[in-house]
Every structure is written in structure tokens, then in C-alpha cells.
Fold this sequence. Notes:
The protein is of the alpha+beta class. It has one domain. It has 1 helix and 10 strands. The strands form 3 sheets. Strands 1-10-5-4-3 form a 5-stranded antiparallel sheet, with helices on one face. The radius of gyration is 19 Å and the shape is globular. The N terminus is likely disordered.
Amino acid sequence: MRVISILAAATALTSCTMSAAPQSNELASQHEYQQLIGDKVAQAPVSCLPHYLSGDMRVINDETIAFRNGNARVYVAHMQGGCNNLAQGHNALVTHQYGNAQLCRGDIAHVVDTLNGFTVGSCVFGDFVPYIRPSH
């Protein structure tokens, strides 16, 4: 009986320890998202993002990616299906544009493990919601 109690306590302690990291990462992601959006106002969604904006991409979580365009504008994409494991530190989002210099709704992105070079998932871009700092 004592062994079962110790195992139960160890399991409970381990599950608490394991759940703290994802909660901490989620809080950090939400904080970064709030910093990017800040005092900006959401505009009507657009279906394509100019390719040059993909250079300043921020992964918020497996479902949300933000593209900064200077300090006054941020485009937020909510991925259809989510990009599993994208928010992990050693994974990258890889896209391919064919004949078009834009990233558009419906484009497929692959999540690649940069340590091993393996594709570990894929997802599809949704609309891009621009958030713009209002002019005073």
C-alpha cells in the first residue's frame, strides 16, 4: 500500500512539473502576441501577404503566426489545422511559392525539425488579419 502511495505521489508531482513548462510557454506566447498587437486595431482580413513580409515572422503558438511590417502594422495568420510542434525551439516553418511572390490563404507550410532535417508536420495558411496602429 505504501509503494502505491509513493508512486501516486511521484506521478502527481511529475505531472505538475510537466504541465508547468507548457503553461509558462503559453503565457510567454500570449505576452509576445499582446506586445505585437499592442494598441493596433484589426482591419478586414486579406487573403495574401506580400512575400517580403515573411522575413519578420513570429511564431506565437502552433496555430498563430504574426508577420511584422515595421512598428505600425502586424499581420496575424491563424493556421488551418495548426502546425503541430511549430512552437518548439528547434522547428522551422518552410513554405514554397511557385510563380507568385506572395504568401496566400490555402498555401501549405511544412514544419521541419532543423536538427534532423525531417518534416514533422504541415498546415495551411488561413486569412491574414492586419492590425494597424491608428494615426492620431
